[in-house]
Write a structure and sequence with these properties.
Layout (H helix, E strand, L loop, with lengths): L2 H10 L3 H12 L2 E2 H8 L3 H13 L3 E6 L2 E6 L5 H14 L3 H28 L3 H4 L6 H9 L7 E5 L5 H8 L3 E6 L2 H14 L4 E5 L12 E7 L8 H11 E12 L6 H6 L8 H13 L5 E5 L9 E7 L3
Parallel strand pairs: 4-5, 4-7, 5-6, 7-8
Antiparallel strand pairs: 1-3, 2-3, 8-10, 9-10
Helix pairs in contact: 3-6, 11-13
């Protein structure tokens, strides 16, 4: 590396604010407003530092409707990588870094709280609201990847239990998980009314599933990722709780610009790019396993296309 290039490394990483930003974006994908809240800084200052980091090739950005989210792009270049490792060691135990991490936790909790509040307010009415997805065919396609008698399947973000009941009717044992107690109450009532057995309802967050390592044969998240504060973390958790050789299946929207979904359906994300989802599967340790991603057109009210991504955990 030339002396000029090496000087750029030192200059870029010499500013403490830029180091704080990189440390945060290494942990989570964040929007400018969220960085402003954590750092306690004005937008102009945060944006200026983001521009410098982006120019240095240290950031990836992703547009989600009217929002732009940033993530740290780990450097492959030797001097950059070595410099960042040195920075991380220096930040360990730093009081400012500890405060930033605590503030980041509050931001992520706020994302989760917004979703929980939405579903707690909707409750049993969700069955009527969710018809906008027109997703019966998608559920059938996803279930087809799991069907095998006596499998133990985790239904992640079960809502009112529609998918859990379909899985149970096929003879599968189901652990249905949701972070909204009101939605679980509705699911319990629906299952009892239909006389469905073999469904274990559990309250818990997708980022910390109430399941042991390798406890289930398969995990399915159907139209759930777009509500989550950290979709990649959810896929890692799904992979964790599935036994070796088991299945991880995700159904969701392809990236789109339908802003009305934020207001009417309470979604966090306006779909996802195929490469994003594949990246999350790889980060979850599923890189060497066969994957399929399908875009399935959805009927109904001006809906985007959808995808089904499936993988098996390594044997």
């Amino acid at each position: 590396m030339s002396s000029e290039a090496l000087q750029k490394v030192f200059k870029t990483l010499s500013d403490p604010t830029r180091l704080r930003i990189l440390a945060l974006l290494e942990q989570e994908e964040l929007a400018v407003q969220e960085l402003m809240d954590i750092l306690g800084m004005a937008q102009s200052r945060v944006s200026r530092h983001l521009a410098i980091l982006r120019e240095a090739g240290l950031l990836r950005d992703r547009r989600d409707g009217t929002y732009v989210f940033y993530r740290f792009a780990a450097p492959d270049d030797g001097p950059w990588r070595e410099a960042w490792e040195l920075v991380k060691r220096s930040l360990a135990g730093d009081s400012t870094a500890i405060r930033d991490a605590a503030a980041l936790g509050q931001v992520m909790q706020a994302r989760t709280a917004r979703t929980r509040s939405f579903f707690d307010s909707v409750g049993p009415e969700w069955d009527a609201v969710r018809k906008v997805f027109n997703d019966d065919a998608l559920r059938a396609r996803a279930i087809a990847r799991l069907v095998s008698p006596n499998l133990l399947v985790a239904d992640i973000g079960t809502g009112t239990g529609i998918l859990a009941s379909e899985l149970a009717r096929l003879g599968l044992r189901v652990v249905a998980i949701d972070n909204s107690s009101r939605m679980l109450e509705a699911a319990r009532a629906n299952l009892e009314r239909e006389g469905i057995r073999g469904v274990d309802l559990r309250e818990g967050d997708v980022g910390a599933l109430p399941l042991a390592d390798g406890e289930v044969d398969a995990a399915l998240a159907h139209m759930v990722l777009h509500y989550l504060p950290s979709p990649g973390e959810a896929i890692r958790e799904m992979a964790r709780v599935v036994r070796a050789g088991g299945s991880v299946v995700v159904v969701d929207f392809v990236q789109h610009q339908h802003e009305w979904m934020r207001q009417e359906l309470g979604v966090h994300w306006l779909g996802f790019r195929e490469e994003e989802v594949e990246g999350w599967f790889e980060a979850a340790g599923l890189a060497a396993v066969h994957r399929e991603v399908h875009q399935v057109p959805s009927a109904g009210r001006d809906l985007p296309a959808t995808f089904i991504a499936s993988a098996r955990t390594p044997d």
